Request: fold
Amino acid sequence: MALKTTEVEAKGGQSRHRSLGLSDEQALRIYEVMRLARAVDERMWLINRQGRAPFVISCQGQEGAQVGTAAALRPGSDWVAPYYRDAGVVLWFGMTARDQMLSFFARREDPNSGGRQMPGHFGSRRLHIVTGGSPVATQLLHAAGVALASKQRKEDAVTAAFFGEGAASQGDTHEAMNFAGIHKLAVVFVCENNGYAISVPQSHQMAIQNVADRAAGYGFPGVVVDGNDVLACYEVARQAVDRARRGEGPTLIEAKTYRFTAHSSDDDDKRYRQAEEVAIWRQKDPIQRYAIYLREAGILQDPVEAEITERVNQQVDDATDYAEQAPDPTPDDLTTFVFKQEHKP
Amino acid sequence: MAVKTVIEAIRDGMDEEMARDESVFLIGEDVGNRGGVFLASDGLYKKYGELRVIDSPLAESCIVGVAIGAAVNGMRPIAEIQFADFIAPAMNQIIEEAARFSYRTAGDFNLPMVIRAPWGGGVHGALYHSQSIEAMFAHVPGLKVVAPGTPADAKGLLKAAIRDPDPVLYLEHKRTYRLVKGEVPEGDGVVPIGKADVKREGTDLSLIAYGLMLTYCLEVAEKLAADGISAEVLDLRTIRPIDRAAIIATARKTGKVLVVHEDTPFAGVAAEVMAIIMENAFDALDAPVMRLTGPDVPAMPFNHVLEEAFMPNPEKILAKARELAAV
Reply:
């Protein structure tokens, strides 16, 4: 099955990204962050399978939904509450390949957790990335609270909460959307629907086709978007973020997507997914689709692509070498920071 | 110094902190226009408006989860759980999230937030309006748990909790709200978290308690004095971080200790206090450490005979203290 060519022109004859207000540089930047998220992830699997690190959890296949929506936000002043697949979101918000690899190897210098949490449990106060744990959907309420504080102080920051459709079954999801709707909070809820809660397919998680349909019950719009079309994700997120910033309240975006890997390095997805299904979705790879678009739009010529590839590879190599050699925490680190006691340098 | 009830002291504490610091706000069920079901926030909605005294939906995980997010973004929320009995839906947010924001980020995040929860029995509240929850939460590293028993401590510990950089579970005993009156110092009168208080000096035995049981133990000490028994009463005030030094000091001083709480005994606060004494003051003991607690049943029944049978009261404490004194 051939990869589908992305529509290059929007209505009015302009190229799609420009009609969305994205410059060529911004369009390429989105592509590069997607590539970096994928490349770091692929390297982690390689290292995991070599037995050099115990665990990996993946973003692969969901980079379009992640970077496309995050790109509509303002890193630095806006906030994100990501979930464990959101490498694309946190890279867009300023994390680096080194940060990710330090977390992957659980080193002392890991800025997310000092090597305490599993990989994928992102957090940085400085970058406005709310720390996440492993219980799902709790971060949606945190996002509502962050947005409440912005409203209380009359600031125009927007907070985006990211979650899988699995987390949509949790009570916290309902409580967060209900509260955000009541107070018209500047929250964008982004559901990355990859069709499975580990092995449980959507048909056994809910009796409806679209998580976005639930938004009506909370008094705000719900939008379904092709999660593997990064510009489409950007477009709906742009509208949701603008609406939130105007004080008109939340939006629920449901990005239909797919994870290319097993749930984690400890999962075997062959037990519950057909190889044919995975192959079909790989043909819809958001990175390849976007690359075709950028080439057809005339801004991703071979030398540009080569430069991006080189930068990405260089960052992944550097991050791997740096993090693998970085020191572990010491046993003395076990008991620090139970409470606020020390300031991070 | 003015004489206040516990509920007045709590209201004054919130009011003064909200006036002092614009980042302090209250969120909970019925806290707004109604002023709280116990009137703890009476008048605050009119004074501070709906963005600082927020009537939440009937959803405890929402109350705590939203408070966590607000604390991340520079606020100092007071999250009110209407009855401690209804805190269970928020346990995931409290234990898995709030208690470990600092630890799981190696100190990058901290959560200056207070969770207020009216607790305790003796109010005809039955299974779901009478519970003691302190042991469940005191077990969790990363949480501070306080349980004041007097108006001055209620106000002073509330102020300390609001100003604390970490999550504090603030337990206010419902029976003490209007029963216990006392002088409250003018001004801040902050009571530090983690410091127990000798409420009555004595030499023959020690009664260790908190919350409503403090009032009962003080009554008992008075009666014991009439028998010629000098009882010291140590008010823990903070359950965690527990004041080990104060516990060890009173055990060493009297050599006989009775720990009293209405919570059930198994793996409870008394068990921890007894372990601290055994590990640190065994050589000073003149008798085995005793405890008087609620019974090991799921919760307090509604019927008054059953409720009285559940609750420790001055008579039961007096009998146990005399037993200890006679050893």
In short: The interface with chain A takes residues 25, 51-52, 54, 56-57, 59, 61-62, 64-75, 77, 89, 92-93, 96-97, 100-110, 141-142, 144, 165-166 of chain B (CB under 8 Å). The CA atoms of residues 301 and 307 of chain B lie 6 Å apart.
